[in-house]
Write a structure and sequence with these properties.
single chain, alpha/beta, three-stranded antiparallel β-sheet, about 35% helix, five-stranded mixed β-sheet
């Protein structure tokens, strides 16, 4: 690659989607993977923003010059289709990073709350999204439900796929309960098989996920 200012690399579509802090790590995720989608960024903040946004927002663009205009929703819906309303949706909210975090799951069609946990001290949004997704999977399995589950977090999807919360959050006495929940979620993933379809909520096309806390 030669000299590059890119310190972080986002893999939207690869062997394991995520944010990587070196080209070599990124390369491992895209080498031999047909249709891999990835891009380098100078800062971790830019990478996080990109990772939680549609790939096409960044293809061939510099983050510093990213268009502020939103794509036509009609065009986006034509690309991704419409959501399956017979489903559940999960989301998390966090005040600060880290800060007070909570998460919940709702029935997509009506917004009826199915579960809600928190707030937890010294948490992060990514941890909340992961716990919400695993909680939703557990509820659906317990009910023998065939409903799919939506999340707007690609991080949560990748962590669930890996069976581990790859958080950089530091354990502290204040968040001991949270780390216990993370351990329990990871154990559930290790001990359980599930057929639930986990799907990405396409915020750009459909608006905020129904489980959103409305605090943006």
């Amino acid at each position: 690659m030669g000299k590059s200012k890119n310190n972080f690399f986002v893999v939207w579509d690869g062997k394991t989607p995520g944010i990587y802090d070196s080209w070599e790590k990124c390369k491992q995720q895209i080498h031999g993977y047909a249709g891999a989608k990835y891009k380098g960024f100078e800062s971790h903040q830019e990478a996080v923003e990109a990772y939680n946004s549609p790939y096409w927002d960044f293809v061939g663009k510099s983050p510093a010059h990213k268009s502020t205009s939103s794509p036509d929703k009609t065009v986006l819906i034509a690309r991704v289709g419409m959501p399956e309303m017979e489903s559940i949706s999960v989301d998390a909210a966090c005040s600060g990073n880290p800060g007070l975090m909570e998460y919940r799951g709702v029935y997509t069609r009506t917004g009826q709350e199915i579960f809600r946990k928190g707030p937890f001290k010294q948490g992060t949004n990514n941890v909340g999204e992961f716990l919400a997704l695993v909680h939703g999977l557990a509820v659906l399995k317990q009910q023998n439900s065939l409903l799919p589950i939506y999340t707007d977090s690609v991080n949560a999807m990748a962590w669930v796929k890996a069976g581990k919360a790859k958080t950089r959050l530091e354990p502290r006495p204040e968040n001991a309960v949270l780390f216990d929940l993370i351990a329990r979620a990871e154990k559930w993933l290790a001990d359980n098989r599930y057929s639930t379809r986990i799907m990405k909520w396409q915020t750009e096309a459909w608006g905020e996920i129904p489980a959103d806390f409305g605090r943006k």
